[in-house]
């Protein structure tokens, strides 16, 4: 019995440690959040990014701080909220030392259905030293504008030391540069434009250095895309550039003329008519006509084809009423296309078959 209980306990511990503890779905950066020394009576901020790789999204039930009241959260969304891979959440933690010496807290994030995750937060209250100036000078945002799906836009983010930092320390180091958010953004070549040399990280900047970081935007589908360019530096701040772009899809657009067709004929006759397929879009239009359910005496000249942008295609409709009884006949022609907004179109084809006239021959007489 003791052996069975022991085995059961080991199984439970294995599950808790290796399965549950490993089920973290959040990425919290930076980790830890470190402020360094901040002068009494002053405040400093650190940006924090919360992201996930869960495609279905993760519901955040709680987000808060536990520990020293010198730390506070600024700009975080109200809970609960849903976090998606393409839309990371950014907020700030502010440190306003209330006493001299070390202050600590813990950032706690509670996702629904997963273990709570935490990040250590620390800072030093300094009675005389004051807060270090920001290290980097860079743009807060960069918009790529509109690019066609399948094409690539190039952006260049210029980074240099702030004059305050350069005057105080002379040099500063960027440990790493990363991207978070849409995978349609990627990093290109980084160059020191002052020395015309390639840059790899970690990299130390001198006071007169300008570093140009190349970012590529290649939209994979139509719509808005967002990402964040992040600089990890030796001053423990997390510097961020918000990136945006819009993917535009070149698409065809089908127009039928007429959108219904009436063919007038009579018994024992051969008649033809037509309708036109126009492409008013900006890409090739492909189409396929389905005459499923049509009688054999109605046929089309063309069942499939391609229409260039601004072009048209005339489809002949042929009617052979040999052996067909006079009546009105209607059939729905289905047209499938690559038009993203009008993939399935229909056109009603009605054939009015009149009876042959009765001819009386009065030319014969009885002898």
Strand order of the largest sheet: 2-9-8-4-6
> Rg from C-alpha positions?
36 Å
| First-last Cα distance | 127 Å
Specify the overall morphology.
elongated
Beta-strand segment tally = 28
Helix content: under 10%
| pLDDT averaged over residues | 89
Q: Classify the beta-strand content into a percent band.
A: over 45%
Largest sheet geometry? 5 strands, mixed
Helix count from the secondary structure assignment: 2
Instruction: Indicate the low-confidence ranges by residue numbers.
Output: 9-22
SS-based class: mainly beta
Note the run of SSEs as H and E. HEEEEEEEEEEEEHEEEEEEEEEEEEEEEE
Task: Sum this structure up briefly.
The chain is mainly β. The protein has helices at 2-20, 163-169, and strands at residues 26-29, 33-39, 44-52, 58-67, 71-74, 81-83, 89-95, 101-111, 117-126, 136-137, 141-148, 153-161, 171-181, 185-192, 197-198, 203-206, 211-217, 223-233, 238-248, 254-257, 260-266, 270-279, 285-290, 298-300, 304-307, 312-320, 327-337, 344-354.
Fold blueprint:
Layout lengths: L1 H19 L5 E4 L3 E7 L4 E9 L5 E10 L3 E4 L6 E3 L5 E7 L5 E11 L5 E10 L9 E2 L3 E8 L4 E9 L1 H7 L1 E11 L3 E8 L4 E2 L4 E4 L4 E7 L5 E11 L4 E11 L5 E4 L2 E7 L3 E10 L5 E6 L7 E3 L3 E4 L4 E9 L6 E11 L6 E11 L13
Parallel strand pairs: 2-9, 11-19, 21-28
Antiparallel strand pairs: 1-3, 3-7, 4-6, 4-8, 5-7, 8-9, 10-12, 12-17, 13-16, 13-18, 14-15, 14-17, 18-19, 20-22, 22-26, 23-25, 23-27, 24-26, 27-28
């Amino acid at each position: 019995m003791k052996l069975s209980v022991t085995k059961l306990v080991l199984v439970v511990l294995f599950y808790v440690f290796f399965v549950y503890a490993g089920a973290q779905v959040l990425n919290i950066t930076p980790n830890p959040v470190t402020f360094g020394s901040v002068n009494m009576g002053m405040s400093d901020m650190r940006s924090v990014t919360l992201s996930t790789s869960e495609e279905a999204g993760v519901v955040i039930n709680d987000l808060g701080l536990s520990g020293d009241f010198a730390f506070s959260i600024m700009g975080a969304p109200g809970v609960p909220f849903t976090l998606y891979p393409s839309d990371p959440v950014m907020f700030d933690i502010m440190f306003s030392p209330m006493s001299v010496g070390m202050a600590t807290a813990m950032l706690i994030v509670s996702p629904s259905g997963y273990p709570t995750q935490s990040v250590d937060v620390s800072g030093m209250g300094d009675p005389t030293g004051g807060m270090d100036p920001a290290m980097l000078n860079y743009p807060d945002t960069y918009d790529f504008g509109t690019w066609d799906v399948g094409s690539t836009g190039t952006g260049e983010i210029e980074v240099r030391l702030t004059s305050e930092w350069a005057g105080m320390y002379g040099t500063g180091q960027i440990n790493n540069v990363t991207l978070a958010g849409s995978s349609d953004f990627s990093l290109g070549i980084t160059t020191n434009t002052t020395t015309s040399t390639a840059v790899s990280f970690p990299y130390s900047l001198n006071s007169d250095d300008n570093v140009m970081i190349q970012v590529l935007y290649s939209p994979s589908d139509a719509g808005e895309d967002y990402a964040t360019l992040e600089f990890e530096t030796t001053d423990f701040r997390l510097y961020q550039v918000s990136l945006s772009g819009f993917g535009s899809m070149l698409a065809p657009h089908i127009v039928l003329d007429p959108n219904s067709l009436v063919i007038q004929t009579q018994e024992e006759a051969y008649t033809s008519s037509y309708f036109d397929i126009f492409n008013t879009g900006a890409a090739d239009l492909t189409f396929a006509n389905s005459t499923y359910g049509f009688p054999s005496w109605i046929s089309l000249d063309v069942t499939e084809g391609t229409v260039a942008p601004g072009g048209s295609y005339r489809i002949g409709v042929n009617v052979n009423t040999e052996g067909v009884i006079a009546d009105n006949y209607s059939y729905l022609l289905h047209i499938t296309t690559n038009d993203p907004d009008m993939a399935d179109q229909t056109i009603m084809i009605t054939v009015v078959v009149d009876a042959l006239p009765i001819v009386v021959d009065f030319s014969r007489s009885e002898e």
